[in-house]
UniProtKB/TrEMBL annotation:
Organism this protein belongs to: Actinacidiphila bryophytorum
Pfam families tied to this protein: Glyco_hydro_36N, Melibiase
Listed name of the protein: alpha-galactosidase
Keywords in alphabetical order: Glycosidase, Hydrolase
Family matches, as SUPFAM superfamilies: (Trans)glycosidases
Catalysed conversion reaction: Hydrolysis of terminal, non-reducing alpha-D-galactose residues in alpha-D-galactosides, including galactose oligosaccharides, galactomannans and galactolipids
Cited Gene3D superfamilies: Aldolase class I, alpha-galactosidase from lactobacil brevis
PANTHER family with a match to the protein in the record: ALPHA-GALACTOSIDASE C-RELATED, GLYCOSIDASE FAMILY 31
Taxonomy of the source species: Bacteria, Bacillati, Actinomycetota, Actinomycetes, Kitasatosporales
C-alpha cells in the first residue's frame, strides 16, 4: 500500500517490514526491521515526524537524513551510494526523485521501484526494493547513461547498497577461512569508522565474508536481534558496516555492500547500463537461526530449487584420483550401487592429456588413449546399475601445456606485457571472449548430450590476478562473471534436467548469484569430519542442507591426515546432501554394512532433513556441538550431539533441544543404525540408556526448556538423537 498523506511506501512480510518516505529530492528509509503492523495515516505521519534528529553543532544547518541513495548532497560523510566522474567532472552526484511505483505479492511482501535522475552526469538511476515472502529484502540498482548524453563515458567507480542500523546493533559477525577451513566466524564490537571486507579474488573466495551481520551484544543462534547482508555476486565483492559519530540520520550506522569494481572497469557510454548485483538483507528477532530460516525459505521458494530427493553421490576423486582405469571404475560403480549410491560422478582426469594437474586443462575432449571407446562404456554401466552419471569440468581454466593454450593464447586473461605466475599450473580463460565462450558451450553441450550426463561438478580452482584483456589491458573481472552466468544459463536452457554443482577449490564460490543457476555447492575439499562440523555449521547460515555437499571420506583424511571413525564421518555427512569420497573396493564387510545402513537411514530421513528448520544450540566453548533439523510444525526432529575435543568439564549437564514445542508430548530414541559412538563414561544418563533400546516418552517442557543431560563422548564422535511427537 502507498499512503498518500504521509507519502510512505511500506513492504511487510513474515514479521519484518521496510518503510520508505517518498520525500524529495531523495526518499529516505524510515524503518527496517520488526514489522510495526499496518500503518494508518497517523502512524506514518508519526514515524516521519520522529525521523528527524537534532541539528548538531559544527554541522550542516538542517537535520541529517539517511536517504535511499546517500551522497554528499545530503550532507552524508560516509560511504556514498555511488562514485564516479565524467572525464574528470560531474564527480558530485546529486540525484533527485523522478518517480515511484509499488506492487504487493499475494503471498506477502512486494516491491517498490524508485527512479532518480542525476542531471550533471546524465544518469537515470532505478533502485528496487523487493521484500520476499520469507522476509528477505533484495535491493538492487540500475544506472543508465542517457542516450542523448555527450560522447564522454561516465566512469563508474563504485555502487553501494546501504540500509540503516540502530544503535543496539553494536556487535559484528562475518567470516574468513582458507583452503579446507572455510567459513570460520569472527566477531568484533562495532566502533566508529568503517569495517570493510573487500574480495579481490575474482570469486567470493575461501575467505569469503559470506554474510555480514550486526546485532545486539552477545547475539547467538537462538537469541538476540540481528541484521545481515549477503552480496549475491560471484566475483569481486565489498561488504561494509559503518558508524559515524553523527550517526546516519536518526539511525546509528549503515550496513551494506556491492560489487567491487576495478578502476576503469565500468565506463558507461550513452545508452549503456550497469546493473548491480542484488544485496540480500535479512532481520531476525530470534538470533542467527531466525536469520537462517529466512534465507532458507528464500532459497526453497525459488522456481528452480531442487524438487526431487537429493541422491546419494559417489565422487571418484579420493577413490582413484587420476588413475582412470575402466575396469577399476566399473568395480567401484558396482560397489557403489550395492551400498545404495544413486549418482556416480567421474572427477578430474578423463580428458585429453590429463595424467596430472600439470597439463590438459581446457582440452575438453575425452582422452582416446585412456578411453578408447569414449566414456560410454562407463556411463552405460553406471546407468544400468540404476545410478545417474556425472562428470567433472573446470571450464574457466586452462593449463599452458594444452592444445587450447597453444592455439588460442589470445583467449587467456593477462596483461599485454606478459602473464604472471601460474597457480595450480593454470591460467584463467577469458570466458567473455566470444570465441572462448562459444567453444566452451559447444564442448559442454556436446558431452552432456553424447553421454547423457545428469550432473556436472563445475570447478574453479585458481584466483583471478591481473584479470585484464583486450585493447589497453581493460579490466575483465565483471565481464568474466557475466559471461560465466550466460554460459550456465545457455547450458541449462539446452539441458533443463541437468544439475550443476558450484565447486571452487571446495567452497570458494558460494553465493546466491551462482546458486540462481546451480543446484548444489561443494562445501569444502576437506572431508575430515572434525573440520566439517564447523564448516557445515556456518555454511548453513545461508544455505539449507539440501544444497550443501558433504561426503564421507576414508578413515585417514586426504587433507588433514587425521583418522576418524566411520560412524562420525557418516553422522557428519548425514545433515547435508551426502555422498561418498573413498574407494569402496577397499572397504571390509563391516564398513560396507555400516555404509549401506547409513544410505538407508538418509533415504528414510531426507524428507525431514531437506524440508525442516535448521537449529543450533548456544553452548559454552567449542568442544561440543548440538545441531539438528526440526520439522516446520515441530512434530519431528533429528539432532547431532558431537564432540570435537576434550573439555575441562566431565559432563555437559542439561542441554536444551532447540526448536521443539514446550507444550507438546514427545518420544525420544538414539539412532544406532551406524553403531554407537565411543563414550567417555561408565554408564548413563538414565534416559540415554533407555533410549538405546526403545522410544522414551518425554514432554516438550523437559526437552526444550529444562534440557537433557547428554552423554559424554570421546573426541571425534557423534550421537544421533531422533524426536517424534508421542
Amino acid at each position: 500500500m502507498q499512503n498518500a498523506t504521509a507519502r510512505t511506501a511500506t513492504l511487510r512480510a513474515a514479521g519484518t517490514a521496510l518503510v520508505l518516505e517518498l520525500t524529495e529530492p531523495v526518499p529516505r528509509v524510515l524503518h527496517w526491521g520488526a514489522d510495526p503492523g499496518e500503518l494508518s495515516d497517523a502512524d506514518a505521519a508519526a514515524l516521519a515526524l520522529t525521523a528527524d534528529g537534532a541539528v548538531l553543532n559544527n554541522a550542516i544547518d538542517q537535520p541529517r537524513r539517511l536517504t535511499v541513495w546517500p551522497t554528499e548532497a545530503d550532507g552524508w560523510s560516509g560511504t556514498p551510494a555511488h562514485e564516479g566522474h565524467l572525464a574528470g567532472g560531474a564527480a558530485a552526484p546529486g540525484p533527485v526523485l523522478t518517480g515511484s511505483a509499488q506492487r504487493t505479492f499475494d503471498a506477502g511482501g512486494g516491491e517498490v521501484e524508485l527512479t532518480l535522475a542525476d542531471a550533471a552526469a546524465a544518469l537515470d538511476i532505478t533502485v528496487t526494493y523487493r521484500l520476499e515472502p520469507s522476509g528477505v529484502l533484495g535491493v538492487s540498482a540500475q544506472l543508465a547513461r542517457r542516450s542523448d548524453a555527450g560522447p564522454e563515458p561516465y566512469d563508474l567507480a563504485r555502487v553501494s547498497t546501504l540500509l540503516p542500523l540502530p544503535a543496539r546493533a553494536s556487535e559484528v559477525l562475518d567470516f574468513t577461512g582458507k583452503w579446507s577451513r572455510e567459513r570460520q566466524p569472527q566477531r568484533r564490537p562495532l566502533g566508529h569508522g568503517s569495517y570493510v571486507r573487500e574480495v579481490r579474488r575474482g570469486k567470493p573466495g575461501l575467505d569469503s565474508p559470506y554474510l555480514l551481520a550486526a546485532g545486539v551484544p552477545g547475539f547467538g543462534f537462538r537469541d538476540g536481534e540481528v541484521w545481515g547482508v549477503h552480496v549475491a555476486w560471484s566475483g569481486d565483492q565489498r561488504y561494509l558496516v559503518e558508524q559515524l559519530p553523527e550517526g546516519a540520520g536518526v539511525h546509528a550506522a549503515v550496513l551494506g555492500g556491492g560489487e567491487l569494481l576495478r578502476a576503469g572497469e565500468i565506463r558507461l557510454a550513452p545508452g549503456e547500463t550497469y546493473r548491480t548485483p542484488v544485496c540480500h538483507f535479512g532481520w531476525s528477532a530470534d538470533g542467527l537461526d531466525g536469520l537462517a530460516d529466512r534465507f532458507h525459505a528464500l532459497l526453497r521458494a525459488r522456481p528452480g530449487h531442487p524438487s526431487t530427493p537429493r541422491p546419494v553421490v559417489l565422487n571418484s576423486w579420493e577413490a582413484v584420483y587420476f588413475d582412470h582405469d575402466l575396469d577399476r571404475l566399473r568395480r567401484l560403480a558396482d560397489r557403489a550401487a550395492e551400498v545404495g549410491v544413486e549418482r556416480f560422478v567421474l572427477d578430474d582426469g578423463w580428458f585429453t592429456g590429463r595424467r596430472s594437474d600439470n597439463a590438459g586443462l581446457g582440452d575438453w575432449y575425452v582422452d582416446p588413449q585412456m578411453w578408447p571407446e569414449g566414456l560410454g562404456p562407463l556411463a552405460d554401466h553406471v546407468r544400468a546399475l540404476g545410478m545417474d552419471f556425472g562428470l567433472w569440468f573446470e571450464p574457466e581454466m586452462v593449463n599452458p601445456d594444452s592444445r587450447l593454450a597453444r592455439e588460442h593464447p589470445d583467449w587467456i586473461l593477462g596483461p599485454a606485457r606478459g602473464r604472471g605466475p601460474t597457480s595450480r599450473h593454470q591460467y584463467v580463460l577469458d570466458v567473455s571472449h566470444p570465441g572462448a565462450w562459444a567453444y566452451l558451450l559447444e564442448r559442454l553441450d556436446t558431452l552432456v548430450a553424447e553421454y547423457g550426463i545428469a550432473y556436472i561438478k563445475w570447478d574453479h580452482n585458481r584466483e583471478l590476478h591481473e584479470a585484464v584483456h583486450g585493447p589497453g589491458d581493460r579490466p575483465a573481472g565483471h565481464a568474466q562473471v557475466e559471461a560465466f552466468y550466460r554460459l550456465l544459463d545457455a547450458l541449462r536452457e539446452r539441458h533443463p534436467a541437468l544439475e550443476i554443482e558450484s565447486c571452487a577449490s571446495g567452497g570458494g564460490r558460494i553465493d546466491l548469484g551462482v546458486l540462481a543457476r546451480t543446484d548444489r555447492v561443494w562445501t569444502s575439499d576437506c572431508n575430515d569430519p572434525v573440520e566439517r562440523q564447523t564448516i557445515q555449521r556456518w555454511t548453513g547460515q545461508l544455505l539449507p542442507p539440501e544444497l550443501i555437499g558433504a561426503h564421507v571420506g576414508a578413515a585417514e583424511s586426504h587433507t588433514t591426515g587425521r583418522v576418524t571413525a566411520d560412524t562420525f564421518r557418516m553422522a557428519t555427512s548425514l545433515f547435508c546432501h551426502p555422498g561418498i569420497e573413498q574407494d569402496l573396493t577397499r572397504c571390509d564387510a563391516g564398513e560396507l554394512a555400516r555404509i549401506t545402513a547409513w544410505t538407508a537411514l538418509y533415504r528414510e530421513l531426507r524428507p525431514l532433513l531437506h524440508s525442516g528448520r535448521q537449529v543450533r544450540a548456544d553452548l559454552p566453548g567449542e568442544a561440543v556441538l548440538l545441531h539438528g533439523v526440526v520439522a516446520a510444525d515441530s512434530s519431528a526432529a533429528l539432532y547431532c550431539w558431537a564432540r570435537l575435543a576434550t573439555s575441562p568439564e566431565g559432563q555437559s549437564g542439561r542441554v536444551r533441544l532447540p526448536g521443539l514445542a514446550p507444550g507438546a508430548d514427545y518420544r525420544v530414541r538414539v539412532r544406532t543404525d551406524l553403531g554407537l559412538p565411543s563414550l567417555h563414561q561408565t554408564s548413563g544418563p538414565a534416559w540415554f540408556t533407555a533410549a538405546l533400546e526403545d522410544w522414551v516418552p518425554l514432554p516438550g517442557t523437559v526437552l526444550s526448556l529444562a534440557g537433557l543431560p547428554m552423554p559424554t563422548l570421546n573426541p571425534a564422535h557423534a550421537l544421533l538423537l531422533e524426536v517424534r511427537t508421542a
